[in-house]
Amino acid sequence: VPELPEVETVCRGLNQVTLGDRIQGGEVLLERTIAFPESQGFLAALQGCCLVQWERRGKYLLAQLAPAAQPAQSAGYLGVHLRMTGQLLWVDATQAVEKHTRVRFFFGNDHELRFLDQRTFGQLWWVPPDRQPADIITGLGRLGPEPFSEQFSLEYFSRQLHHRHRPIKNALLDQALVAGVGNIYADEALFLSGIHPQIHGADLTLAQRQRLRESVIQVLSDSITAKGTTFRTFRTVEGINGNYGGQAWVYDRDGQPCKVCGTPIERMKLAGRSAHFCPQCQPRS
Ligand SMILES: [Zn+2]
C-alpha cells in the first residue's frame, strides 16, 4: 500500500512532468474510479484545463486546475487517492495501454497521464472552483496534522497519547492523530524508538513520546529521500521502482535476525495489521 513517502514521491514526480500542458481530453475505462462527479461531468470539467501545481495532504494528491486559456483563474482541483494499488504514470501516447488502466488524460504534447489500479479501490475527484476540497473529498476533513508540520509538535503528540489506552501501533495508524503514517513506517519508527508496538500510548514516558515523534519524522523523510519503498506495485511517475525496502529494520523481516542485536524479528496482529518488532530491542516494559 502506498504510504506518505510514496505519495510524496509521486507528487514531486507529477510536478516535474505534468504542469502547464493543456488536457485535451480523456477516457474513463472504469466508471467507479471517478468518485465525483459522474465520469462525463468529470471529463468535461478537466478538458481544456492545465495542471498548475500538485500537493500532497496525508495520502491524498490534489492538483490545482486552471483554464489553459486563462491560467490565472481557478478551475478547481483534481483529487486522487491511490488506496492499495493505484499508480499514476506519465507515458508517451504511443505506448500500449496496460492492463488495469482505469483513467487516461490526453495532453497536448503527445503524452498521457494514466491511472492504473489493479485492486480498483483508488479514487479520483473533481472539486469545483466554488467548493473546498474537504467538502467533496470527505476523508480530507478527518486528517490530523502533517508529520513535517509545526502542528505535529511534541506537546500535541504527547497530549494526544495521554488518553489512548490502546496499543501505540494502533495510534500511529490513526490518520486523525497524524496524517499519512501507515503500517511500514509505524513499525520502523517503533523499532527506532525501542518501543514495543503493544504498549499503550498513555503508558509511554515523555522521553519515549519524544523519541517516537522524532523517529516518525526521520523514517518518513529518509524514505522520501530514497524515493519510497519497494513494493511489487509501487512505481514512480516515470515507472521506476522505489528502493527503501532493502533498508527496513523490521518491516516484513519476521524470522530474520535483528540488524542491531541478532534476535529473530517477530510478528503479531494488531489493529488487523501485521506488526513487526524485535523482542530484545523493543521490550514490553
Ligand atoms: Zn534487536
General description of the model:
By secondary structure, this protein is α+β, with helices and mostly antiparallel strands. It has helices at residues 4-17, 39-46, 133-136, 138-141, 154-161, 168-173, 183-193, 206-225; strands at residues 23-28, 34-36, 49-57, 60-67, 77-81, 86-92, 101-107, 111-117, 123-127, 266-270, 273-277. The strands form 3 sheets. The protein has a 5-stranded mixed sheet. A 4-stranded antiparallel sheet has the order 1-7-8-6, covered by helices on one side. The chain is elongated. The mean pLDDT is 93. The structure holds zinc ion (ZN).
Topology:
Blueprint: H1 4-17, E1 23-28, E2 34-36, H2 39-46, E3 49-57, E4 60-67, E5 77-81, E6 86-92, E7 101-107, E8 111-117, E9 123-127, H3 133-136, H4 138-141, H5 154-161, H6 168-173, H7 183-193, H8 206-225, E10 266-270, E11 273-277
Parallel strand pairs: 2-9
Antiparallel strand pairs: 1-7, 3-4, 4-5, 5-9, 6-8, 7-8, 10-11
Helix pairs in contact: 1-8, 5-8, 7-8
Bound molecules: zinc ion (ZN).
